[in-house]
User: What shape does this take?
Amino acid sequence: MVETVWLFLGLLAILTAASAIATMLTWKNTRNGDVLPATLANLNARIKAWWIMVGAISIAFLFGKGGVILLFAFVSFAALREYVTLTHTRRGDHWILLGMFLVIIPVQYYLLWIEWYGLFAIFVPVYCFLAMPALTAISGDTARFLERVSEQQWGIMLSVYCLSHVPALLTLAIPGFAGKGLLLIAFLIATVQGSDVLQYVFGKLLGRHKVAPRISPSKTWEGLIGGIVSASLLGAALSWLTPFTPVQAGPMAGFACIMGFFGGLVASAIKRDRGVKDWGHMIEGHGGMLDRADSLVFAAPVFFHMVRYFWT
Amino acid sequence: MVLAGLARAITGVRPIWQGSAPQGGQRIYFANHASHGDFILLSTCLPPQERERTRAVAGADYWRRNRIRHVLARDLLNTVLVERNWIERSQDPMVIMLDALKDGHSLIIFPEGTRNMTEEPLLRFRSGIYNLALARPDVELIPCWIENMSRVLPKGAFLPVPLLCRVIFGAPVGLEPDEDRHAFLARSRQALLDLSPERQRELDHG
Assistant: This one.
């Protein structure tokens, strides 16, 4: 596919440019023997991690549907692990927790593989929703029952159900777009992650007024608006990856990015509640898997259903 | 090696060297104990060379109870087995541990003496750690707080739940001149407890 080649050449160019700028800034800041400023060290780590993430996604794309499903099953695993680590668990929850990793993740992604949409859509919100508290009750430990059960439900919804809607884009039968589902995934990831980066850049350059100072000091109105508008433009420019016209692609991207912003906000609220700065340390410079995926968690299901409603 | 890889894959374990460096002389690592995974997790955090020569001290009465356990403990985990029961024991645990130290091994000990199944963060220490400190003042005693392993593999569980773990290594604790057994046990226990995340949070806030 010609589009895929252009997409990866484009990503390669952007990452190369980012690396070149960062290298130049590093050289400029340290040539007099000065210590590298923390922001710049973090920027270097982030760009390095971006190379690895884009590499991983590219490899998954080479393997097609199976590769992407496996990649996101792994993302779900890492995200759920970070999430559960921060929750309150008791000894009686051992089997439920095992089931979340060993049953729910494989089943949810297997349903995608066989494209059984009906069960894919309700497996977590109906069956797991009811089975998990039932099994917790059978274990007999009622201490902080409601809290434990709710935390488990949230973890599964966020890290497994919502995230699995990214590869689910492959299963949509869009007229005139057969076999190009991977490109739609690339569109979603590129605009949502691009919006994260652009919000960070606009926030650093122009940020004055904080959106939610008690939750996240780094989220500003200037960053938010600049990031969403520029990511929408990016989306319109990438409409050749999608079944949308440029006029449709812009708002679709913008909507996904607004959801992504809320995802980041909710994730920050959870982290603040638990007294941690990052979800984990898996991705150098970014924090954990959820620090990178939080925006996709909120954007993916909404984007999926909008495409499903309007284009199929 | 395989076990270390497995432990890393499941728990993504990270060592936090806070008060001591990864490389050093011969050492005794002492840690909180709530899971069979504890010493595998701890040794996973050590640099490969140190891991090679480090052996865990475990209860013979538990690990010799049947053949499978015995083979596991002796050949796979390479533990130093000591008998915990005062009355029935045939060999003095101190002699066995000091022999292992004499052979150049570093040791991992769990001074609580058993897996902690209570809601308390740390049980009272047994006196073995004091006797070791008295007999070998040249060997550093390093407190190591193992975080989350009791949730990954609680007592009685067979399959581990993947959760992120950390091992926090503190500054060495040595026997002071004229320090008696009680004072040393309390002080070394406090040194370990101070590394726990709950205590660290309290210390941070005042």
Notes: The interface with chain B takes residues 77, 81-82, 84-85, 89, 91, 94, 97-98, 101-102, 275, 280-282 of chain A (CB under 8 Å).
